[in-house]
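Quick illustration for those who missed Monday's session on complexes.
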Amino acid sequence: MSIKLFWEDTYRAQNEAVVTSIDGDVVTVDKTVAFAYPGGQVFDTGTLGGFPILNARYENRELYYTLPAGHTLNKGDAVTVIIDWDRRYALMKLHFVTELLLVVLGKNYGRHKITQADILPDKAIVGFDWNIDIAGTFPTLNEELKKLIADDIPIISAYQDRENEKRYWEIPGLAKVPCGGTHLKRTGEIGPFVLKKIPAEKGKAALEIELTPGNG
Ligand SMILES: [Zn+2]
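Prediction with zinc ion bound:
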């Protein structure tokens, strides 16, 4: 199984690795900074052995990277894995502002079933089974989120079950949440953001979070 450097050091953008298997366009390596895990945060783009990572998936604790057809890698090759750091850091900010938003929403409005949670490089999209005009929550959300960010609170990230690679983040006194994403070290890193209401089916609600232009 590949060693997940993206959990051991979330801020690491490249590593040296050895190719451990090749199955056509799909390659595995012995250790990697390039993230993929179920749960909403999209996989990292970048290069592996100089070839662009077209897709990445996590399955049974292994990471499978799809490279272009015609790549020339072989099992045993030494390679460098490099991720698009600016894209990843934006994903981490959007991921964690979404985590905080869900905590603040739950605290103020109760828990509602989440029907969508997509953390994309340019925005996060969250949908709920919740019959509400979501824009009505924005003043409260903006005020409480901005305070949590301004307070620049340390964030704990660790394994709750190392063998099965189940992880969590925690801010003591605020929340402890199971999640395998790549989390920031401090809330202050999120910086300025903007909430937008987006269309949803009847009886549902959805919003988008974007980083304010110039963030970062
Ligand atoms: Zn998370």
